Amino acid sequence: MEQFLQQVINGISLGSIYALVALGYTMVYGIINLINFAHCDIYMIGAYVGYYCMTFLGLGVFASLVISMAACVVIGVAIEKIAYKPLRNSPRITVLITAIGVSLFLEYVTMFFMKANVRSYPPLTGILAENINLGSIFISMKQILIVVITIVLVVLLQIIVRHTKLGKAMRAVSLDKDAAELMGINVNNTISFTFALGSALAGAAGVLVGIYYNSINPLMGVIPGLKAFVAAVFGGIGLIPGAFIGGYFIGAVEVFVAGYGNSMYRDAVVFAILIVILIVKPAGLLGKNTREKV
Amino acid sequence: MREMKSIFKASNVVKLVFIVLTYLLVQFLINIGIITDYYQTTLATICINIILAVSLNLVTGFTGQFSLGHAGFMAIGAYACAIITLKNPTYAGFIQGVAAGAILSAIVGVAVGLPTLRLRGDYLAIATLGMAEIIRIIFTNLKITNGAAGLQGIPRFINWTWLFVFTAATLIIISNFIKSSHGRACIAIREDEIAAEAMGINTTKYKVAAFVIGAFFAGVAGALYASYFYFLKPNIFNFAKSVDILVIVVLGGMGSLTGSVLGAAILALISTFLQRFSEVRMIIYSLILIIIMLFRPQGIMGSRELSLSLFKRAASKIEPKVGKERS
């Protein structure tokens, strides 16, 4: 039982990170129907920016988090403007291949400048370095920090999407791009804004994962990115609450497979879940089946 | 003269002559030592990549289904062939290995394709990517594949002749498939899936068929890889390998078999020269992908084929009076 609770706690911390990344995937997919393969590398870059802020500038966790989110917003929007915007009316496969190209470009340019070796985040100090022992259950302050920051960011995101004009524009564009344009919504700006939001969340996730696992490398985004995408599909792609639930679900599954089964197979199980979802309920947990119209 | 429409048409004879000449030319260059052992490896890479690219082109270029797991199918073929030839190091064993690898890949192709190809959209890309990862993880953990260390000392049974025969056979089979009514159904699905369905094409059936044929030949390519390069480990067949194949298809032109041949040759030469700078190689690959998609999304060849009639048409453009356009 204690081991079970411990796994639940670990699952929630890992799930928070997946949830943050999955939100970016799901928002971009919701608005332009693109699997943004470069998203996982924005998460990686976020981790590197955080690493530089903490190691070389000596900044604290929160300052690094904010700087890293800002840097990711810039990169995310730049990618959208340079690589995706000219292809707005191209076939989806063209944009998808571009996204893969951008993803590889970010990975290997980072590898070229930073070298492929693993780097480790500086240890946290003060209250954040402490652990809480509840009987035999063990909660580190890092885990609490990750969950709290995730919740705060998701609440902020919900406020932006539900209660601001830009959020309303985002929802309108994802519902029907042409109609939104006719209503006077600037579609291009709205899409850029969506990329900005998603990239900020990915940047935050990158810093948090650096703090949590303490090691980063240029290819660190690939597998978590895929898992976050699986999380988005699980919850129902295009739906923000779906990505949130999916993230925690995938995080929990991974931790439990690693804890009770064979940790080598934890990635395989996540992908098997994807294939099962696609067979059983392709629209995802919260999604509704929609017929494609001519 | 209807019944005379046999396989001995002029264009087929020309193709046959061209194939034989290509073989003899390269064989001659090997014999007189212009193509050294080092470049023979490049030659083998080109042949294997042609098979991979052509089979992926059938799925992605002709049927319009985006698959990102070709390396997974290749891995199945490679390991099946390696395990069988290690147990039975004879030519019979090698042939069995190729057949087993190809058939196993095709079976996995059915298992993955049937559920995911019913869906429209990009799910196939993610599902195949996931499948390739699962295959790689399984091979890393199995005893029979010797885990992450991989298999060594796989007996080599193939040389340029074998590679050429397999490559030419793949090209002929896939090009005939595309020219058949089944192939036209696949192209119709690429152009407009809803319209194709309205025309009475069983879209799922043809998508699965193309996907399974693609998986089959990827298995063949994997088996050839195992037999030529002695050594296998699961990390060879990672996501980067799938992207390598995709780059060939995209560069050559989605929907052009000769484009894939061209793309495979160009990229193999580029990567031979960039052998020592693997990071730069990947940066160049990614830039090729982005730049082609932004400025020439149809690739080098578009959906045209390099053929005699293309040269004739080019010639007739220069000299418009030569002959009338044959339909």
Secondary structure topology:
The complex is a heterodimer of chains A (294) and B (327).
Chain A: H1 2-32, H2 39-55, H3 61-84, H4 92-114, E1 119-120, E2 131-134, E3 137-140, H5 141-163, H6 165-175, H7 177-182, H8 187-213, E4 215-216, H9 222-235, H10 240-260, H11 266-280
Antiparallel strand pairs in A: 1-4, 2-3
Helix pairs in contact in A: 1-5, 1-8, 1-9, 1-10, 2-3, 2-4, 2-8, 2-9, 3-8, 5-6, 5-8, 6-8, 9-10, 9-11, 10-11
Chain B: H1 10-31, H2 37-62, H3 70-87, H4 91-116, H5 123-141, H6 160-179, H7 181-191, H8 193-198, H9 203-229, H10 239-252, H11 257-273, H12 278-295, H13 308-318
Helix pairs in contact in B: 2-6, 2-9, 2-10, 2-11, 3-4, 3-5, 3-9, 4-9, 6-7, 7-9, 10-11, 10-12
Q: What is the number of helices of chain B? A: 13
Number of domains of chain B: 2
Mean pLDDT of chain B: 85
Shape of chain B: globular
Give me the count of strands of chain A: 4
Q: What general outline of chain A do the C-alpha atoms trace?
A: globular
Provide the succession of SSEs of chain A: HHHHEEEHHHHEHHH
In percent, how helical is the residue content of chain A? Answer: over 70%
Distance between the termini of chain A: 54 Å
Work out the number of β strands of chain B: 0
Given as residue ranges, the uncertain stretches of chain A (5+ residues, pLDDT < 50) are none
How far is the first residue's CA from the last residue's CA of chain B? 18 Å
Low-confidence sequence ranges of chain B: 321-327
Query: How large, in whole angstroms, is the Cα Rg of chain B?
Result: 20 Å
Mean pLDDT of chain A: 88
